[in-house]
Design goal:
single chain; alpha+beta; 9-stranded antiparallel β-sheet
């Protein structure tokens, strides 16, 4: 074989063809599994349960649908039986979320602060927290706020708003947790 004639890789033709055949099988199989994982993650509707500090169910988040441009979530609060609708813009440069009433009235818009950080995160992952996403909040009654990440390897964030009477703190906390769970900053490059 080539390795025997050139003395670069001293293996027999049988060993070379066995390794080549194994790689020829494993690589396409890995590509198929990876592609199926991407399709699965994009098509399966999510259900998230949020618990209070006593371990009781506080809210249930159900993904109610998605299209090519948006995902729609409904947050059902256990005690008050209220419903909050949240939409997420898909495949955007910066992550964008909206809080809505069930009737469609926009309560707040939550947008990722830095476009360059978003692009670098898509290429490099979050780099031990350095590229974690921060968000700006613009809501009713001209309220402004932010969701600030700690930018450490361990996921931690603080949510602040300048007019607490404009947005329900419980709603903002539930949406912040949804954003943190749904748009979890990954250690590896990711397109969405």
């Amino acid at each position: 074989g080539l390795g025997e004639a050139s003395k670069l890789l001293p293996v027999s033709g049988f060993v070379y063809s066995t390794i080549y055949s194994a790689c020829s099988l494993i690589i396409p199989l890995g590509v198929v599994v990876f592609f199926c994982g991407i399709v699965w993650s994009q098509l399966i509707l999510r259900e998230i349960t949020l618990f209070d500090r006593k371990g009781k169910k506080a809210a249930v988040v159900l993904q109610k649908g998605f299209g090519l441009s948006h995902e729609r979530y409904e947050i059902y609060f256990a005690l008050s039986k209220e419903v909050l609708v949240v939409t997420r813009k898909r495949f955007a440069l910066r992550r964008t979320w909206e809080m809505l009433t069930r009737e469609g009235l926009v309560l707040a818009s939550i947008t990722e602060r830095s476009a360059w950080r978003a692009v670098l995160r898509k290429i490099c992952g979050h780099l031990w927290g350095i590229l974690r996403a921060d968000y700006d909040i613009e809501g009713q009654m001209d309220c402004k706020g932010s969701i600030e990440n700690a930018h450490t390897p361990f996921d931690r964030f603080v949510c602040n708003i300048d007019k607490p009477q404009a947005l329900n703190a419980r709603d903002l906390l539930a949406v912040s947790l949804l954003i943190n769970i749904r748009d979890k900053d990954k250690w590896y490059p990711w397109f969405n």
